[in-house]
Amino acid sequence: MTMIPALDRAFQQGRALKIITGLTNFDADRVATVVRAADRGGATFLDIAADPALVKLAKQLTDLPICVSAVEPEKFVACVEAGADLIEIGNFDAFYAMGRRFEAAEVLQLTRETRALLPNIVLSVTVPHILELDQQVDLAEELVKAGADIIQTEGGTSSNPVHAGILGAIEKAAPTLAAASAISRAVAVPVLCASGISTITAPMAIAAGAAGVGVGSAINRLDNELAAIAAVKSLVEALSTVSRSTIHA
Asked: SUPFAM superfamilies per the record (predicted)?
């Protein structure tokens, strides 16, 4: 699949920053605030819930590529018709608290169904962190064979930081950083490291082999747009401090 040129460049440079409004967030006002913050803060692209109305809203507010996330392939069709630039199976973090698990076989089947419905759009797929690391790598390889153009890692909900500050931030991101490192060595497509990522750990993700990072709660939890813009700018600056030449050194 042909990658959007601006997104492809960002991946190649290890500077891709995806701001995530939330797979279950259908609050138009809240989504609009995050979209504006991502746009003004210098993010690379956005990830919003799979809702055609939200896609149209985001398109009015920004020229950034819009990704929509869902776990039901049929939801993607109307969103693509509304203008979505790429699609994402996942994130799964929102479902774990409900007791909903996504096993490898189901994620692979969702990928195949989605690709059959929409053969000509960039497709990102999240690898569930509930799998053992070697199983995550195996699944990522199968997902690429099934048509995934981007692999996304996760893991923030499985970590239990015991320290505050910098050490706690690293502990929080450890599962998704480990997945990004292992998977990026096994697949040729870009790997996006998401879930629990901060300004501290974003450069670590790139150094570990990721081509970009996805950040959601660190932006969504802020109570005003100016703070959200500042947070996005800080992430952009953090990514600029690491060189792709350090990957797998």
From this structure: Aldolase (SSF51569)
